[in-house]
Structures are given as structure tokens and as C-alpha cells.
Amino acid sequence: MAEQRQARFFDTVSMSYTASVPGGEVIEQVPESAPVTLSLGSGRVLMAVEAAMMGMQVGESRTFNIQPEDAFGRYDPKLKQDVPRAVFGDRIDPQPGMVLALSVERNGRKQQVPATVLAADHQSVTVDYNHPLAGKTITYTVKLLAIGS
Length: 149
Hints:
Structural class: mainly beta
Oligomer: single chain
Radius of gyration: 20 Å
Helix content: under 10%
């Protein structure tokens, strides 16, 4: 019986996967009925996911954890800020849970970045510029469906 080929960098693979956070909440799911096809090493999925797939064979499933620093970064409490409510004027009524595009200056240039509203009162709005998944370990269950040439 011939040895089955293993996935390696630059292979084109088809895969299904489920990504979840602690507590089991599914944050992304790609079913076997609609797999994603990509070249390992292309950066279409997290590099740590691609690395964990090395050596997998067609039909094999693996479950592994991706640490925050290899996923969406560590949570940085300095990225929480209070913004005067007046900044929003009458354009928007910020409410906890909303994700807003706010302008910040980075390296001398204005950029739009997402910020999650944590709290709001009559005077100020507390926003968090961290990615919503920052600081979380992501658990992936991946099934390798095919290896192309």
C-alpha cells in the first residue's frame, strides 16, 4: 500500500474547519459541503493554523489551540479610552456593543479604525480599539479534504 501524501507548504489544499473561543462559541465555520481551497503559506488563514496543518493527510482531522499572540494579539488595556460624547455630535448615539469606525492618528496619518463601545453616559463614551478576539485562545478543528498539485 502506498504511503499517503502529507500536506506541506505551498500545497493547494481544500479544508473545512470550525473556530471557537473559550466557552465554545463558534466564531467561524467552513463546512465540508463548501470547503475553502487555499495554498498553504498564502496567509489566507492564520499562519499558526497553516503550520498546524503540516503533515496532515487527506481525511484527517485535527483540533488545536492558537494562542492570542499567534491569532489576534494579546489584549492591551491601554487601547481602552474615554472619548467625550461631544465628539459624536448628533450623528450617532453610541451604545454598548456597537462597533464604530473612528479616526485616529498613527505615524502622523489619520486612519479609520474599528472601536467597540464598552460604555456610554451623558459625558463620555468608553471605546476599546483592541480586536474583539484579542487575548483569546482560538480552538480550531480542521479536516483536510484534498491536496491538489
